[in-house]
Amino acid sequence: MFLGTHTPRLDDKGRLFLPAKFRDDLAEGVVITRGQERCLYVWPQADFARFTEQLRAAPFTHKGTRDFARMLAAGASAEVPDKQGRVTIPPGLREYAGLRRECTVVGAMTRVEIWDSAAWEAYQTEKEPLFADISEEVLPGVF
What we know:
Blueprint: E1 5-6, E2 15-17, H1 20-26, E3 30-34, E4 40-44, H2 45-57, H3 63-74, E5 77-79, E6 86-88, H4 91-97, E7 103-107, E8 112-116, H5 117-127, H6 131-138
Antiparallel strand pairs: 1-7, 2-6, 3-4, 3-5, 4-8, 7-8
């Protein structure tokens, strides 16, 4: 499970150091793709395969399923972290997420998210006041 918030920098070659506590789970390879809210999702390859199997089980005749699958797959890139724990973020994905230098890497339980640090701060500022109200809506009866 991926947890926590980290603030690595993107280097001049578009590489990012993965947080040390995530490296073992991501060492075999990752799939980086467009995320929602203009961040990037980083999945261990096996988890991405499981996720896409679930997506493939959704009705192909549903336009939303087709649109989501296209956007997810068209921007996806399979990468293998180097020995130092760096992963290369392809230019198109860097542009999509607005990544320049300062990045925030968020553990989102089943995946890792990469955000431009300013975008992450703005997202947190907007969503923090809604957090308590959202929990009951999303997880009724759990809290």
